[in-house]
């Protein structure tokens, strides 16, 4: 059995979520895996079953608050919930992001994560502590983008900043109720989200290695896991600069590709 006997994870069909699911999969472990792409989700589930885990798949949109609350409320005891699902998006041409893109990013990366974390927090507060005295652990996957307002990806940075801020600020009161909260802030990770980037990605890391770092930090009860440390430190420093200066610096760096507007 892995160190987390019962895990619910969104965004399990790809990238970091896929790597987290595989890292948690072990005999005696129950995994509840979420995503939208049924065939990719099924593929990850099969790989986890081959490692001995019991796997339940759940195809749904994290932006559907009622569906997420029903899912989290129905699965029984949860030792770990990871709100990982998210989308990238930005603007390369210097124009403001399209309104539809702004709303989709906030609905997925901020509200979508809260749609899972909030019912999980409520459910965990009511469940008995495990052998380690912890009732449950919740991680939200933000980004080092939370630390800096990049003109190339305004909504992405802002949604991740809000998610990181909410998670870290809630972690203290949650801890008093036996629940550990962790904000996960990765730098560049090699996944389908970053494979289209045509600019240098300092500190680019494999998803399997990222998953190990994330799970170690969650197990240690850290309120924030930001890595690689030097990328996080650079982002923090840039975010502390006067906005006009950081805006100029970050505009020199290319942004992410805009989302399709269909
Ligand atoms: N890769 C990086 O460099 C990096 C760095 C920092 C933070 N992050 C964050 O890490 C998380 C995972 O990113 P990734 O790089 O692994 O990206 P990815 O490979 O594109 O995977 C994204 C996952 O999120 C799911 N998802 C997206 N929108 C969803 C929605 N509305 N409802 C349900 N599931 C949805 C996708 O499921 P379907 O495909 O099945 O729809 C997929 O499983 C994101 O929150 C991202 O912002 C990534």
At CATH's second level, what is the architecture? Answer: 3-Layer(aba) Sandwich
Bin the strand percentage. 15-25%
The coarse overall form would be globular
Q: For the record, what is the CATH homologous superfamily label?
A: NAD(P)-binding Rossmann-like Domain
What is the CATH fold-level name?
Rossmann fold
Oligomer: single chain
Write the layout of secondary structure elements.
Layout: E1 6-9, H1 15-24, E2 30-35, H2 38-50, E3 54-59, H3 65-74, E4 80-83, H4 99-126, E5 136-141, H5 154-176, E6 179-186, E7 189-190, E8 205-206, H6 207-219, E9 224-227, H7 229-240, H8 243-252
Parallel strand pairs: 1-2, 1-4, 2-3, 4-5, 5-6, 6-9, 7-8
Residues 10-11, 13-17, 35-37, 40-41, 61-63, 84-87, 108, 112, 141, 143, 186, 188-189, 191-194 line the site of NADP nicotinamide-adenine-dinucleotide phosphate.
Summarize the structure.
The protein is of the alpha/beta class and 262 residues long. The chain has helices spanning 15-24, 38-50, 65-74, 99-126, 154-176, 207-219, 229-240, 243-252, and strands at 6-9, 30-35, 54-59, 80-83, 136-141, 179-186, 189-190, 205-206, 224-227. Residues 254-262 have low confidence and may be disordered.
What distinguishing features does this structure have?
262 residues; alpha/beta; Rossmann fold; 7-stranded parallel beta sheet; two-stranded parallel ribbon; 8 helices; globular; disordered C terminus; binds NADP nicotinamide-adenine-dinucleotide phosphate
């Amino acid at each position: 059995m892995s160190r987390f006997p019962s895990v619910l994870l969104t965004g399990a069909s790809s990238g970091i979520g896929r790597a987290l699911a595989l890292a948690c999969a072990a005999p005696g472990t129950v995994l509840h895996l979420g995503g939208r792409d049924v065939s990719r989700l099924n593929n990850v589930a099969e790989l986890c079953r081959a490692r001995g885990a019991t796997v339940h798949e759940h195809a749904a949109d994290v932006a559907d608050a009622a569906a997420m609350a029903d899912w989290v409320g129905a699965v029984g005891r949860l030792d770990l919930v990871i709100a990982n699902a998210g989308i990238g998006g930005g603007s390369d041409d210097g124009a403001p992001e399209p309104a539809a893109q702004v709303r989709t990013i906030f609905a997925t990366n901020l509200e979508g994560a809260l749609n899972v974390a909030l019912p999980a927090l409520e459910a965990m507060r009511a469940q008995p502590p495990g052998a380690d005295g912890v009732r449950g652990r919740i991680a939200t996957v933000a980004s080092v983008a939370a630390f800096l307002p990049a003109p190339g990806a305004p909504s992405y940075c802002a949604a991740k900043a809000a998610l990181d801020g909410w998670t870290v600020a809630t972690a203290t009161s949650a801890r008093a109720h036996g629940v550990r909260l962790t904000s996960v802030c990765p730098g560049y990770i090699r996944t389908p989200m970053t494979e289209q980037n045509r600019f240098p990605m300092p500190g680019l890391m494999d998803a399997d290695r990222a998953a190990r770092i994330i799970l170690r930090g969650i197990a240690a009860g850290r309120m924030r896991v930001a890595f690689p440390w030097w990328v996080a430190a650079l982002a923090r420093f840039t975010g502390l600069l006067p906005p006009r200066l950081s805006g100029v610096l970050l505009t020199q760096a290319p942004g992410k590709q805009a989302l399709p507007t269909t």
